[in-house]
Amino acid sequence: MKRIAGRFTVLIALSVLTACTFPGWPTYTSTAYSFQLQYPPGGSIAPGATDTSIRIQLPISAGTNLAEKYLDIDVHDGAATCESPLASGYAPGVITPVSMTINGLTWVKENASEGAAGSHIDWTAYSTVRGSVCVALTFVLHSHNPGMYATPPPTFNRDAESAVFVEIVNTFQWLSGGPTPPPPPHPDVAPALIASTATLVPTLSPSDTPTSLPPTPTPTNTPTSSPLTFTPRVSPSEFNYKTNLEACRINIPQVDISVAVSSPSLVHSVVLFFLLKNKANGAETPWNEGLAMNPKGNGVFDRTVSANQVPHLPVISTGGASAWFEYQFVATNLHGSTIGRSQVYSDVSLTPCK
Q1: What is the CA radius of gyration of the chain?
Q2: 204, containing H or E segment
Q3: 23 preceded by cis ω (within 30°)?
Q4: Which fold would CATH assign to domain 230-352?
């Protein structure tokens, strides 16, 4: 696993005080937290969206090694700090946050790259607060090593694929009726935005609460009898969590999990469940509440999971133990009824960073 520090960022100050609008672009509106933004045609909101966690799949140029491009919108109300969930786990100084003003709003921009087992992630995040509400917009470019293909495709144009990021941020606007805007940044804190209860500074706090779906399917150790079969693919087979050691560095912060289901026409969504099993004593945590996987077409679903998305991680991390990350797929139909579940897989390890 190789981490690359965030690329150089530039302090930007724009004089435009109202959000841009793009005719023909769809609009996402949060009625719960009073904000909205636009995204380009061809984009789609992934199943499982909640008021605080939304993924928008963005269109890409076909025929390259770019597998997907998406925007994660994470909302935190009353959090002590405001940042993208992907910023947690990095060693101090690896990511340099930069404060900027876009359309009259103060944002903190963070970006970095990471890769493992043939996959590469480039992410750029913009975070802003109003009152106690933090909104983090995280744009992700997920590509594969061209050498993994029988016929290597051309490398995608990073600048061209990233150009839409700033355009989307420019459409963001707070709506009336929300919390009181925060006071100006304190002169002694940079780059940071001091707010009533949320501050735009990097931190190593956990975030990104797992999503539950109504009606909620449940995991079980016994697969249901159904015509469905599940073919999983996981990369890498080990990822790390943060410990209290100052020198600790997370080398592999996440695992990519995908599954192909038979009879795609029957399956509307797949929910990923997981628990931790202590390798030393066999003790198990409860199952998580379920994470909606992202549909990729032709019966394939995927999801990236990081250690800070494991709700019962402290049960393992407090003692610095290693655990099996056991997971199961539950398929549902268009009406939300469970129509099949896989076996429980135990081929991924979650270990403390060194």
Answers
A1: 20
A2: none
A3: no
A4: Immunoglobulin-like (2.60.40)
- Cα angle value 2/325/316 (rounded, 5°): 90
The set of residues, in sequence order, having a beta carbon less than 8 Å from that of 58 and lying 6+ positions away, is 39, 40, 42, 43, 69, 70, 71, 139, 164
Domain 2-174 identical in fold to domain 230-352: no
Element (H, E) at 249: none
pLDDT the model gives residue 212: 35
Angle at 306 between CA 303 and CA 312, to 5 degrees: 110
Q: What is the pLDDT of residue 222?
A: 56
Contacts of 304 (CB under 8 A, 6+ apart): 254, 255, 256, 257
Domain range summary for the chain, segments of one domain joined by +: 2-174, 230-352
Confidence at residue 15, expressed as pLDDT on a 0 to 100 scale: 35
Tokens of 323: 């655990």
CATH class of 2-174: alpha beta
Among candidates 141, 146, 101, 95, which has minimal Cα distance to 121?
141
Low-confidence ranges of the chain (pLDDT < 50): 1-17, 179-215
